[in-house]
Amino acid sequence: MRGFFRKKALFFIILVGIIGVLVFSSKAGVVLKKYFSPSAMVLQRKHLTKEDYELELKGINTADINLKSIYGKAVFLNFWATWCPPCTEEWPSIQALYNSQNENIVFVLIAMKDEEDAVKKFLERNKYTVPVYIAQSPIPETLLPRVFPTTYLLDNKGFIKIKETGLKNWNTLEIQNMIKNLSE
């Protein structure tokens, strides 16, 4: 009987040690959080008005726009920063999605609390071509992110179809199919 309890105690100690290493290892912690935390993706039917689109944007690698100029089009709207590890980690999937879907949806990535030079260097260093902007007017409360990254998929009628907070692989068949249906 004593041997059974010793084996059980040893197993428990080893298990706690492995969990501790995983939790305190930053890369492993990100992986655990990514796969074992509940999804932050929220499917919504909230409607945005034209006033919610009132946002002046300075183009970093594209022309300046006001967000209201794309009202009536499907939009991939992402708030991110160069200093945000989850933001920069999801960029390759956003670029891949842009490469395959830029004719079906307007991409608007807004760099937040970032220096223009840092954003330019990040884009050039990684050869990213997705349109990136810096807000020149206050972001409407309905879109203002609380965490980074925050991404919205908006349909052509101004409905929020998805609001995702946190890291996500955007280049999936599910998202591609959803984007194709946003303009219908």
What does this entry look like structurally?
- By secondary structure, the chain is of the alpha+beta class.
- The protein has two domains: 35 residues; 141 residues, 3-Layer(aba) Sandwich (Glutaredoxin).
- The chain contains five helices and eight strands; from the N terminus they run H-H-E-E-E-E-H-E-H-E-E-E-H.
- It has an eight-stranded mixed beta sheet with strand order 1-8-7-4-5-6-2-3, with helices on one face.
- A hairpin with a 5-residue loop joins strand 7 and strand 8.
- The protein is globular.
Radius of gyration, taken over Cα atoms and rounded to an integer in Å: 20 Å
Tally of helical runs: 5
Percentage of residues in helical conformation: 25-40%
H/E element order: HHEEEEHEHEEEH
Write down the oligomeric state: single chain
- Spatial order of the strands in the main sheet? 1-8-7-4-5-6-2-3
Q: Assign an overall shape.
A: globular
Q: Specify the biggest β-sheet.
A: 8 strands, mixed
Mean of all residue-level pLDDT scores: 86
Q: Can you tell me the number of structural domains?
A: 2
CATH arch. level architecture of the largest domain: 3-Layer(aba) Sandwich
- The CATH topology of the largest domain comes to Glutaredoxin
Quick one: how many beta strands? 8
Q: Pick out the low-confidence regions.
A: 25-40
Query: How much of the polypeptide forms β-strand, as a percent range?
Result: 15-25%
Distance between the termini: 68 Å
At the fourth level of CATH, the homologous superfamily of the largest domain is Glutaredoxin
Can you identify the CATH class of the largest domain?
Answer: Alpha Beta
Structural class: alpha+beta
